[in-house]
Amino acid sequence: MPTGRATRAITGLFDAVFRPSRFVRAPNAATRTSIRSTLRRLRGLSVVFVVNVVLYATPLTLSGFGVAVESDAPAWFVPIGRSVLGNPDTAWWLLAGIAQNSVFITAISGLTLLTYHAALIVTRSSEGFLLTLHTVVYSVSAYLAGIFTVLVFLSRAGPFATARELVINVQVRFIAVMYDVFGVPPSQRVFTLGDPVPASRLSPSETTILAVLGVLVLYFAYSMYLGARLNHGAGVTSAALSLLAVGLSPVLYVAALLVYSTGGLML
Amino acid sequence: MSQSHTDTQTERNANEAGATGARSGLVLETQPTLKPTLLSLAGVILGGLVVVGFLFLNPTLLGAAERTEIAANLVVILTAIGAGRLLTRLYVLTKTRYVVTPNAVRREYSLLYKTFSRELPLARLRSLELRRSRIEAIFGIGSVAFLTGSVAQSPAHLEFANVPRPERVRRTVRDRLPRDTA
């Protein structure tokens, strides 16, 4: 059924761009189903997520991004690697690279799932975890992966140096605010705020790529909003609050990293 | 998966019913009008042009001119996506047919070698709903929804959207409903 899969992939891509409501809507959304049916849907969603994360991480790995594993394949992996790619070391290098490149998007997806569902429960709009999972899996697979792809592209493309500096500057500013909130001493700060990057240095192609980034961010936010509205039947306020919770995910992520790296809170 | 399964089933049913309909004759066949979609398309393009034009006339609106350029690019992309979506809808609408047979109502379209057909037997109909927005009222069109009253996520199982002379469609279907429903 490769033709059917290709058609579904094209339709999915079309829906992701032109019909986000159809893209994130859970088909046959029923709040009470059998355990068997729940497990089947859980498995289906897991496959969608894993396939999309691998599709996102493989080109990065093949282009050499984020690959730090240089050790030989372990003994238990040698027969598997040999049967898959012929060379077990290459297969191990590829697998480790894909895993490494998937870590961040997987972590932020998990955090998004938690904050989003917690917000839906708090606002008493939740119609079940599976519906939240469906929304997050599809939103992350398409839009968040798109955002990360653009960011990786910016980090590697030579002609986009100013755009890259601008994006990094925004992220460092955010982390600096978190440093101040958590009272991290300057000696323990990994990132230091540099000079502001003048936007006047941006070339037309850089303004275009930053606009694409902006569109993807808007799509991601809109898809999460639609997920709450369509899949959970949430009201406008509840959906907006759930979206706000998703917006807080990076705050929680950085906070967790700071607590982990500094060994405790200093509020 | 289940969606495509349902579509296949309805398609098969529709073919069978279509054959029956062909034997007993079509009661009514019509197509949705393009006017509201064309109006939306014009609105999206015009709105996008106005915002982009305003941004270019005020290049320092967001500080540096490059920031305004980013915003203008963003609006251009969103306008293009919105226009693309409406153009696709226009294409689908030109391929859509609404059919009333003595026994059923049916919505069908053919798109890129794929045929979709959804049919509702009149015996299962519980009520009819006619909706008209202000714009639809201006154009003399409306939407007729056919409700079955069965358990479903959406109460409207089949809808003839943006159909010209919706009262005629409703009357035609109502006249053919079994007595206990009508």
Automatic annotation (TrEMBL), chain A:
List the source organism: Halobellus salinus
* Domain of life, per lineage: Archaea
Q: List all membrane-crossing ranges.
A: 45-69, 91-116, 128-154, 208-228, 240-260
Keyword list, A-Z:
Membrane, Transmembrane, Transmembrane helix
Q: What is this protein called?
A: Yip1 domain-containing protein
TrEMBL record, chain B:
Membrane as a keyword of this entry, yes or no, is yes
Q: Which residues form the YdbS-like PH domain?
A: 95-172
Per the record, the domain of life is Archaea
Residue ranges, annotated region (Disordered): 1-22
User: Can the keyword Cell inner membrane be found in this entry's annotation?
Assistant: no
Membrane-spanning ranges: 38-58, 70-88
Mind telling me which InterPro entries this protein's record contains?
YdbS-like_PH
Name of this chain's protein: YdbS-like PH domain-containing protein
Q: Which organism is it from?
A: Halobellus salinus
List the lineage, top down: Archaea, Methanobacteriati, Methanobacteriota, Stenosarchaea group, Halobacteria
